[in-house]
Design a protein that fits this description.
two-stranded antiparallel sheet, 8 helices, about 250 residues, mainly alpha
């Protein structure tokens, strides 16, 4: 009986010794699989890395560039409705200011062409009519999709950029009769084409503030600070006129 017990112990020991390598190999395999799963489930680092510098003591100082913050002058107070009107003005300004800038460039081109190539009133009339047709072709659809408020802001900006009221522009390039007709239409809608742009008063002062932001290159940051999105880009495909003075054959 004692010999049988010894034999049984030896058999169990041999079986354990044979199974031990396989158990160790399985453990290594399971550990490797766990490590691989952890690597796959590791969260991907996103965002912008922070830069750092070492000061004179060898300490790490992290560096970051912050977007500009707009602070209005002390004492400026507006009610909620006023702020909504101001935000609407910012939105409309972004839509129409590029057209005012192009209008200034085109008006300078028209004046230069008339001064250099026009010698007769009939030539000037034909040239102005041709320019008018080209302008309608280029901008009619864009202007038709503008709101009334956007059109009013555009009128103020054209005065600012071109140095002439809407009434004087019509009178200069069309006729006094046309200018008076459109002035009558404007008066029906409580508007005045003769009113000059004044950067120190009323809404013109707010528009002037926006113009300075645009011209200084700070417009994108300012617009983003209000709407939390980048300003929509107004694409104007053609910024110069192709119309030339038509001259009769001798």
């Amino acid at each position: 009986m004692r010999a049988k017990g010894i034999i049984a112990v030896l058999v169990l020991a041999a079986a354990w010794a044979a199974a031990a390598p396989r158990t160790h190999a399985q453990s290594e395999t399971a550990l490797g699989a766990l490590r691989e799963a952890q690597a796959q489930s590791r969260r991907v680092v996103r965002g912008t890395p922070m830069y750092f510098e070492l000061d004179e003591h060898g300490d790490t100082v992290f560096m970051e560039t912050l977007d500009p913050v707009w602070i209005f002058p002390k004492g400026r107070k507006m009610r909620d409705g006023d702020w909504r009107q101001y935000y609407k003005l910012v939105y409309n300004f972004n839509k129409v200011y590029p057209y005012a800038l192009v209008g200034r460039k085109m008006m300078a081109q028209v004046d230069s062409t008339i001064a250099a190539d026009v010698s007769k009133r009939s030539q000037r009339t034909r040239y102005i009519n041709d320019v008018e047709k080209e302008l309608f072709r280029l901008f009619e659809q864009d202007i038709r999709h503008m709101t009334i408020n956007q059109g009013l802001v555009l009128m103020r900006l054209v005065d600012r950029e071109c140095g002439m009221s809407a009434f004087n522009i019509i009178k200069e390039y069309e006729s006094g009769l046309a200018a008076n007709f459109w002035q009558l239409v404007a008066r029906i809608f409580s508007q005045n084409l003769k009113t000059r742009y004044d950067p120190t008063k009323g809404e013109d002062a707010k528009i002037e503030e926006l113009c300075k932001m645009w011209d200084s290159g700070q417009w994108d940051a300012f617009y983003y600070s209000i709407f939390y999105e980048h300003p929509p880009r107004v694409v104007i495909k053609q910024e110069t006129l192709e119309t030339e003075v038509r001259k009769k054959n001798p």
